[in-house]
Amino acid sequence: MPKSIYSWDDYKLLMQYPHLIGQIAGFKDLVPLHSHWIKFCHDSKTDVCLMASRSSYKTSAVDIVGQIYRMLRNPNETSCVIRKTITAASEVVKAVRDITESPAIYELMRFAFFADTDGNVPSNAEWHYKTRKDGKIDLSVRQSVTPECTFEALGLDSKITGRHYDFCISDDCVDVNDRLHTTEREYTKLIMAEVRANVVKKTAYTAVIGTKWSSSDLFSVLEQEGIPME
Questions:
Q1: Disulfide-capable partner of 131 in 17, 27, 138, 202 (CB 3.0 to 4.6 Å)?
Q2: Which residues contact 202 (CB under 8 A, 6 or more apart)?
Q3: How far is C-alpha 7 from the chain's CA centre?
């Protein structure tokens, strides 16, 4: 069996500093702080909240690189990203799909899925997305069988009942409309309460990331609940 361009030492380094996965993928603006954000959101066992300023590469780091980090560690998990609209969430899924199919990241995932203890990968080993459509990707190496795919897009405007995931990332579900309109603000809080209570499995959790827009928006509710927050 031929050696991969990666080794287990490389893999351990990337798991310790996942922003380096982003560097390999072309996200040159990611720095060690983004590794902390990724691990804070993806390694927690409880709901967490990350508030950061706009243009701080939250989506690139936590949504996109974080999902790749997650798949590398456990391809059997199911995850979803929820944003204001299904269209915005589908853009994240598409970015994950396109980046993981690029040569360097494809090979990294091939190594993680198939390498033996010496770092050898069978020459005929390959993976693909058995479901590959707008808003949904499902790894061929996933052994669990569920209606949910490896990674799916949801919007606050989606039908979300009946879905159950191992993890959910909520990204920018609070925006300027939550500042301007009480109805919008209350709707966001209502849907996110349903996501946290029922869309994620009872043993699962949600990471909420974004920017605060109002003193009574979703982030204020999370603060009042005592959700771990940075």
A1: 138
A2: none
A3: 24
